Amino acid sequence: MRLTYKTIIAAAFGSMLIWAGSANAETTFVDLQHTQWAKDGIQYMAKRGTVAGYGNGKFQPQTSVTRGQAVTFLVRELYPDQLEQPVEKLKYTDVSINHPFYREIAIAEQHGLAGGFPDGSFRPNIPISRAETAAFLTRAYPLQQGTLNAKWTDTEKHWGAAPIQIMSSNGLVGGYPDGTYQPDRTVTRAEYAVFMARVIQFEREAAIQAKDWDKLISYMTVSEQVGQMLMPDIRQWNGKATTTVNEGLKRNLQDQHVGGLILFEKNIVDAQQVTTFTHQIQNQTGDIPLFIGIDQEGGVIRRIPGGTNLPGQMALGATGDPALAEAAGRLTGEELKALGIQVNFAPVLDVNSNPDNPIIGLRSFSSNAELVTRLGLAMIKGLHQSDVVAGVKHFPGHGDTSVDSHLGLPVLTHGRERLDAVELKPFKAAMKEGVDMIMTAHIAFPAIDNEQVTSRKDGTPVPLPATLSRKVLTGLLREELQYNGLIISDAFTMKGISEHFGETEAVRRAADAGIDIILMPQDVSNAHQALIQAVNNGTLSRERVHEAVKRILTVKSKYHLFESGPSLTQKLSKLKNIIGSDAHLQVERSIAERAVTVLTGADGKSVETIRASDRVVIVASDADQAEQLQKQLKQTAGNASIETVTVVLNSNNMKTVLQTVNKADYVLMASYQFRNVASQFRWEEMQLFINELNQRQVRYTLLSLGNPYEMLHLHNVRSALAVYGKQEPNTLAAIKVLLGKLEAKGKLPTDSGQSGE
């Protein structure tokens, strides 16, 4: 590689010697128009806090670099921690204690980066030559002889021949068109910045190729390191949904160096758009790729429109079939991978033992820890088969809570024996099988950590949630359970964290407690700065950050994120054969159909069916749900002359609904309880309606579309089915059972009982 350089201005500086900069120095300069070839290198080194300008946006790229400046840049890059420590007294005759680079020159000498001259001088203010630049850089960095053939006519007998050859053979410096290197020619600020940038990027690439994450981390700034520990959401910017790369997103990537992003519905239009979006996002990153994650649990928590609409985890629990759970994980992974998404925050390993749980419910496989474990491991296996990270949640367990951690701070008071037998059981098994990511819960577990802190909301004492607890994350998860994978927090926007802890304190506490990735900080810039400040002031150790970043890089490598993938054109061409494919839809149907469960029936095994000439009244809590059931009933009934009417039941229209029922042969009543406490649902209203149906001896079935806890609160229900979701696959399976075209073979995966008598 050969470069022709601009005219070099050789001048000594004296009192105008430039300070080498810091992380807060200018990174954009207005005087680079004549050195565009060096712009990227200058800005790269400026962002690293290694070089800086003269103020007012001036970098003065064509000014010569002095020996003092050259070693200062290296010291600030390699040994920033030593700049605040005492240094040995220099013996150079021309470097007084008052010299602006006295400390840096002393550190450089200590590490063998540069020495003086035979006359006892250092000559800090004279311009550095191209040969000296090569010598300084090869002393500073562990460069080896490269493979490029780079021989110059004027270096063979020069004192700097060896370092020049090492730099040249790796393509890090070039010569001139006449075949010379001109080793004694002085170097400009632009050239020196470019040379340093090339060496650092060369060494980083070598570390990535060798999977030497310790080495790569050593070349990452504190800003880059803590950025890897942040995974914000990007739902909107400037009031508009983020579906393409915008300036706000670029800022997160370039200024905060974030290590990952989580996508939501607002970011997704269709499969082609999200595939293009994720491809373009990765193109915005440097040499470290992003984790792009999503909550694609199936059922009620899903983000991908047009994809396979899996019936959900409790539906899988009702099938009791690990093979179906594995297939569900595999097809979910295949679709996410095709869309450019590598992390799925699933499966949910919470054991939903509390019917009043307002947020987990049918997102769980079961109230039985053994069944949750069996199916959870199978789904993890399926995701791994598709090369997608399974981010299991919510450790140590969110299943026995009656408070939604999105809205408050739940406290689980069980003793350790119970936690081991129930809540921790699926997580222990997942760790044993090699799960790579565990999401923490914003829940307090006094049996593990009984620390109280003062709430910023109202000044009252509140227990420390697992996400911020060193005893839970480091003591229990890391040390006792020997988990070595990634620990990611639940969203920091949730009130279990956001109401009681200021973000600066919460972010620092979480990282110090053992969180490797902070999900969805409320303000990513503030969170990033909080972590930098915590490292700089010693409240967050560099070792803690190093181990977190090493785990992140290791998992990214394990899932092939550092490898070159297919082109965007290739990705888009494959989508139609993956997203919602026939094979995937067959799995979807199988789960939904095998999950349908008889909650109560005349013989305990079957429900009242719909007959060919029935007039069916469909009663639901919202019009859309009623219309969906009506449409599916008509389509599935085929030639049968079934007449249908839909009504919406609420607390004010019971009389009107009952008048409609007077003309019915059959009533299909849909119940949907989710995201609220089961015992506080509209059971009295529903019981009154069921009593009327019983009194009138109308054939009916109560269709449970949400958490299947109706039989805990309703009595004398003659016929009831559970399908564990209101999605189309779930309700279609129910319609088939009600028409006698499918047998309900599911088994209730909760302990709520199946009889309302």
> Within the largest sheet, what's the order of strands?
4-5-6-7-8-11
Share of β-strand residues: 5-15%
State the share of residues found in helices, binned by percent: 25-40%
Q: Give the number of helices.
A: 27
Describe the sheet with the most strands. 6 strands, parallel
Q: Give the overall silhouette.
A: elongated
> Count the strands?
18
Assembly type of the chains comes to single chain
Structural class: alpha/beta
Low-confidence stretches: 1-24
Mean pLDDT: 92
Radius of gyration from the CA trace?
A: 32 Å
Cα distance, first to last residue? 85 Å
Written description of the protein model:
Mean pLDDT is 92; it is low at 1-24. The chain is built from 27 helices and 18 strands. The longest helix has 22 residues, at 189-210. Helix 12 runs antiparallel to helix 22 (582-595), helix 22 (582-595) packs across helix 27 (728-738) and helix 23 crosses helix 27 (728-738). With 757 residues, the protein is α/β, with parallel strands linked by helices. It has a six-stranded parallel sheet. A six-stranded mixed sheet has the order 13-18-17-16-14-15, sandwiched between helices. 38% of the residues lie in helices and 9% in strands. The relative contact order is 0.08.
Entry summary:
This protein is an alpha/beta fold and 757 residues long.
